[in-house]
Design goal:
This protein is about 60% helix and about 15% strand. The chain is built from 10 helices and 7 strands.
């Protein structure tokens, strides 16, 4: 559905009527090149998107990507149209999971269309921030919306970076602090979330650098500087993600090694107790054999002596196992 639409003239918001009429008015000779209309959609159905497509005469390649959905994060330009796909993320505190959403933006001659899929892709805050605090950027034209979108997404990446870092620190302290109460599945799940995080963030690095270059699709030097700032923030996040992945691999290896050591210690204890049980069993088995001519068979002290021998043998074994660290 269409969640919001407006016309922006000199950075100020104005009501938007019929899309095709508003777009024709913006394209009239003598009108400022930076004025544009912005249409926002959320999980649009085929009918709603077809209406916008016809009214704004969207590029067929952009329409094809939108209809297929679930695209890899990218920024492409063709025939004066810029098409961007951004993976949005949301950190779920209760489960320490990262939910993925998707935002698409089509920027053309005097228009912007943004589409979001899923609840992990809020856009209302982007529009509100641009209208209230960054009107100067809106005066730069439709590509200012793309900057606002990418800036918001990368800021969210940085927030998730902090959350993942805290989770990793807690696991690291448990594993290397001697507790080792963390389950292997917890470490693996966090490693998988870090991989999902990397898949969303890494593809944006190249397009952001391209948007900040003088020979790229952005002609405004002011916007180029802003895109370069977003690219710097993304590089910092990507460096953290790479370090998390390597550290999680080391933590998982250490965790499994500690489990192996603990299992060996348990097996030593089991073997020690089995040996202590085997000795009195052997003595009792020999003593209990029914032969008429066994030594001490009719000796009154035979039974107490056999019991004493069992106790002494077990105590000597236990002392020996204690000294060797098996118990």
């Amino acid at each position: 559905m269409i969640v919001d639409q407006a016309v922006y003239r000199s950075g100020d918001r104005h009501p938007c009527g019929d899309l095709s009429d508003e777009l024709a008015a913006l394209r009239e000779p003598g009108r400022p090149d930076a004025d544009f209309l912005w249409v926002g959609l959320k999980d649009p159905g085929p009918g709603e998107f077809d209406l916008v497509r016809r009214e704004l005469q969207l590029h067929p390649l952009a329409v094809e990507d939108v209809l297929h959905g679930n695209q890899r994060a990218k920024v492409e330009s063709y025939d004066g149209t810029v098409f961007a796909v951004v993976k949005t993320l949301r950190y779920v505190e209760a489960t320490s999971d990262i939910e993925t959403g998707e935002v698409m933006a089509i920027i053309g001659d005097h228009f912007v269309v943004t589409l979001r899929h899923g609840d992990a892709a809020p856009l209302h805050s982007v529009r509100a921030r641009l209208e209230q605090h960054e009107q100067q950027l809106l005066r730069e034209g439709p590509l200012a919306v793309l900057h606002g979108l990418l800036d918001k997404v990368v800021d969210t990446y940085r927030e998730i970076d902090d959350e993942v870092g805290q989770d990793l620190q807690a696991i690291e302290m448990d594993v290397f602090g001697g507790g080792n109460r963390t389950d292997s599945s917890t470490i693996y799940r966090l490693k998988r979330e870090v991989l999902e995080f990397r898949r969303a963030a890494l593809p944006l690095r190249g397009p952001l650098l391209e948007l900040s270059e003088p020979d790229g699709p952005v002609t405004s030097p002011e916007l180029q500087l802003h895109f370069r700032d977003v690219a710097d923030h993304l590089d910092t996040t990507l460096a953290s993600i790479d370090s998390y992945d390597a550290l999680l691999t080391d933590v998982l290896s250490a965790h499994l090694s500690q489990i192996g050591v603990q299992q060996n210690a348990d097996m030593r204890q089991i073997s020690a107790w089995a040996a202590m049980i085997a000795v009195p069993t052997l003595i009792a088995g020999v003593y209990g054999m029914n032969f008429d001519h066994m030594p001490e068979l009719h000796w009154v002290l035979g039974y107490p002596l056999a019991v004493l021998l069992m106790v002494v043998a077990v105590l000597l074994l236990r002392r020996s196992f204690k000294r060797s660290g098996w118990l």
